[in-house]
Amino acid sequence: MEKQRRPWWLYFNLLGLDAPVIAVVWLFLFAQTWRVNYHPWEAYAALGLFVWAIRIMGKLLSAAMAGVEEDFNVKHRKALRNVALLAGTSSTVLTVLNFPLSGYNYFLIGAVLVIGYFALALFSTGEDNEPVYAKHLMGGCAFAYGTALMAHAYLPSLGIQQMVLSREFICFAVLCLLASSATDLWTQSGKVEDQEIKAAHELALSLPLTLLGAAALVFAVQNESMSTRPFFYGILTGAALLQILNRMRGRFRIETVKVLTGVCLLAPGMIFEAYAISR
Questions:
Q1: Radius of gyration for the alpha carbons in the chain, expressed in angstroms and rounded
Q2: How many angstroms separate the CA atoms of 113 and 161, rounded?
Q3: How distant, in Å, are the alpha carbons of 8, 132, 244 from that of 141?
Q4: Measuring CA to CA, how many Å separate 164 from each of 147, 173, 176?
Q5: DSSP for residue 155
Q6: Is the dihedral of CA 163, 166, 171, 174 positive or negative?
Q7: What is the full DSSP assignment across 157-210?
Q8: Sign of dihedral through CA atoms 43, 49, 50, 52?
Q9: Residue ranges of the domains in the chain?
Q10: How far apart are CA 202 and CA 175, in angstroms?
């Protein structure tokens, strides 16, 4: 009966499909923005599969730490582990066969970020109803780094420092960080009755989203050639949608909110990706 009552669209989040789809969409937007001339489909497949594997492993770790036997990830942990293993192996094969040799030196940074994220997720307790911001910071940076790297690696004349210091990377990393923190903040807010704590959680998300949106608008307006405008308009739209969801989250169950959080990142990427292609 529980399975029958669960809406089909919830599986987008339950199966961890949200993160890889978002990564692939924004990878294309990065490639369009940075004028990557040669960008094979293997880059998208490798990124999507790797992110899917990491996403599933993260969900399994969180479910195991929560210890709720009725959790979807606990019930299907064996199948999900097999999917993660297959996705990770396929991603590795595609990367080894197709990734430019000049980019292998940068994988170490990505590996450190991913290991750091899992370490923080494993050893952080999130006591006193407070989100573990260090974990979300590491996760947001790892997600943004991997996505941007798969575009930047096909620009051999540019070093990795130029990527991590670029406005596009920084804005996307902050957006990912805030989206990751948002679900944690909203989950914690639902567990407490203290209105001051709820207000503090809302402000902790609302203020940085406003600043991010303002920065993205300024960067878009400053770009006279308009080559980066679709990207920054996508950041601005994503921040605005998260801001709206932050105000309206009380109308939805937390499972629905998690799906909508993914939509807040996916929708602007798809819209401005289409705009970038049409130009």
A1: 19
A2: 16
A3: 30, 15, 24
A4: 12, 10, 15
A5: -
A6: positive
A7: TS-HHHHHTSHHHHHHHHHHHHHHHHHHHHHHHTT---HHHHHHHHHHHHHHHH
A8: positive
A9: 2-278
A10: 16
Do residues 244 and 206 touch, judged by C-beta distance below 8 A?
no
The string of DSSP codes covering 88-151 is: HHHHHHHHHHHS-GGGGGGHHHHHHHHHHHHHHHHH---GGG---HHHHHHHHHHHHHHHHHHH
The structure's pTM equals 0.89
In the predicted model, what is the mean pLDDT of residues 8-29?
91
The first and second tokens of residue 217, run together, are 């608008």
pLDDT tens digits for 150-202? 998 888 767 788 899 999 999 999 999 999 888 888 877 766 666 676 677 77
Per-residue pLDDT, averaged over 231-241, amounts to: 94
Compute the residue count for the chain: 279
